[in-house]
Amino acid sequence: MTLTENARAPQQDRSRETRDLILETTLRALARIGWNATTTSVVAADSGVSRGAIQHHFPTKEALMRGVLEYMYEGRNTSEFSISAEVPEGVDRFEYISEQVLDYYASDHFKAALQMWTAAIGDAEFSEQLQMHGDKLARAVYDRVVVVLNADTSDSRTHRLIQTTLDLSRGLGLADVLRDDSKRRQSVAQFWADELRSIKQLNEPQ
Amino acid sequence: MTLTENARAPQQDRSRETRDLILETTLRALARIGWNATTTSVVAADSGVSRGAIQHHFPTKEALMRGVLEYMYEGRNTSEFSISAEVPEGVDRFEYISEQVLDYYASDHFKAALQMWTAAIGDAEFSEQLQMHGDKLARAVYDRVVVVLNADTSDSRTHRLIQTTLDLSRGLGLADVLRDDSKRRQSVAQFWADELRSIKQLNEPQ
């Protein structure tokens, strides 16, 4: 490694950190105040990064939003939103997974995606990207539910009930946008856990 | 009635008709191209009403959107979206109501409301109006399901399943925004009809 390369590395790290800070701040702003209110000025004020630096990384609002979309779905940034397959000791696995999935779709992650989802309606390319990421995420959540519940998805009703968990979660996430719907969501999660109990599990005792 | 009053009446009718045409056109545009793209120019082009006349009825975009919100939830304009309590001859009532509710939330009415829902996030007063109308509509849909299914809502699971029908419908409505999700929705409606069959009905034979 030459001296020049050595000197460049920390600078690249700093640039990457700044970029991530901008994207994280934009994501939170989208969830909190929506697409139109999320301007460079707001992101600058919230992040402490100068408007010039933001514009250097993302010359247009479109570039910034595409950046956020990629950022949200990058593996290393989804830990906050990811649902662990490890059910905590002493917790009912049906209640655990029902609550986790319902809460996931009420996160800032979903709310930011929802803002993009509605704003993207006229933009075919952005729509397609959103759909692709959304589908990938839905498959990951579906698979996680299957593993936690040891579900036999060759059983059609079992497959459908798990799929319904995702659609239901999106509906509840939407209800949480204009008000704090967490109390109702918690009681729905309890109810839904009991519905999920009727699925077919693999290797069940006959 | 004086001559002047006589002459004024048809003019008021025309003004009302123009107002309704503007609002109906705006609603369709919101559902199709979203909040930001729905401009006075677009509404003028789609409706054939001049920009001047639109601005006379609705001086600001805010006024236009509040107008659409009220228009959507006025009794006389909801016939297209209303769900009849009359189950067509020979049609299973569970399949009927499941399909009707799921399709309702994939209508232009829901899509336009969704655009407002996400755009209203920073506007406390508009948010409150949206919530009030949304709650009123949800209660009306809930009541319609109860009547069609002759449901005993004193049974907690029955109440919950019907409530879940609404949240599920919102989630499916969202999925229909960026693509035509009607085929999947139809198969979910079939599945959900079978789930609803397990509710408690009033005056069931013991």
From TrEMBL, chains A, B:
InterPro entries: Homeodomain-like_sf, HTH-type_TetR-like_transc_reg, HTH_TetR. This is TetR family transcriptional regulator. Residues 16-76 form the HTH tetR-type domain. SUPFAM superfamilies: Homeodomain-like. Keywords: DNA-binding. Gene3D superfamilies: Tetracycline Repressor, domain 2. The keyword DNA-binding applies. It comes from the Bacteria. Pfam families: TetR_N. Residues 39-58 bind DNA. The keyword DNA-binding applies. GO terms for molecular function: DNA-binding transcription factor activity; transcription cis-regulatory region binding.
